[in-house]
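step=encode ok
step=design start
structure_in=
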């Protein structure tokens, strides 16, 4: 069970920060990562409070922008003196490293099991969710792009990150993400299906 005081602190002081991020990284996203991380943690001998904390803080660095948000999340954790109420300095350092290591484009494997768990939990390998998040990001950060330009940007992103040879790496054997990634790659290869999904979600997003 997660320490009640720790949970109350994070729910009061940390999770509300996500309400101010782009639509792909708001409260529903961090809630999903926390839930997935806690589920994966059941397969390992780990400190559940640490897993919960890494997941809760993993994207807080977005307050400084997306490019270096993983490093900013690490700094936020290390500067949060309240965490010393529940963790040793060594544990906090591990939590900070794990948050920094979660980024999908990281060139190295996470340094601890905590980083691997949260990195895997952050891999939302669901075609509709991935395409929706890409559209949301484009509408928010590249409003100058029209629908067709947005589509081309999405296709480029999918190939770069999720297709064969893409930079996305999976770290946890117990995860279902390998099967989901294979299914996503089939959709990426099926251009009419991919276009149909894009058109549907794009319409949903611009008519909200």
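sequence_out=
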């Amino acid at each position: 069970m997660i320490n009640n005081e720790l949970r109350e602190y994070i729910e009061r002081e940390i999770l509300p920060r996500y309400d101010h991020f782009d639509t792909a990284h708001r409260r529903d996203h961090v809630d999903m990562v926390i839930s997935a991380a806690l589920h994966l943690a059941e397969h390992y001998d780990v400190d559940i409070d640490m897993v919960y904390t890494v997941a809760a803080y993993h994207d807080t660095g977005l307050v400084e922008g997306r490019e270096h948000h993983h490093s900013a999340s690490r700094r936020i954790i290390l500067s949060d003196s309240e965490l010393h109420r529940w963790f040793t300095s060594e544990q906090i350092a591990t939590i900070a490293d794990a948050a920094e290591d979660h980024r999908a484009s990281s060139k190295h494997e996470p340094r601890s099991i905590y980083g691997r768990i949260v990195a895997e939990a952050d891999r939302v390998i669901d075609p509709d969710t991935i395409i929706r998040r890409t559209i949301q990001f484009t509408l928010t950060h590249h409003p100058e792009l029209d629908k067709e330009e947005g589509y081309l940007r999405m296709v480029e992103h999918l190939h770069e990150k999720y297709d064969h040879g893409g930079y996305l790496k999976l770290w946890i054997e117990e995860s279902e993400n390998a099967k989901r990634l294979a299914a996503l790659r089939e959709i990426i290869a099926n251009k009419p299906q991919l276009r149909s999904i894009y058109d549907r979600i794009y319409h949903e997003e611009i008519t909200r």
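step=design ok
step=annotate ok -> The CA atoms of residues 155 and 191 lie 10 Å apart.
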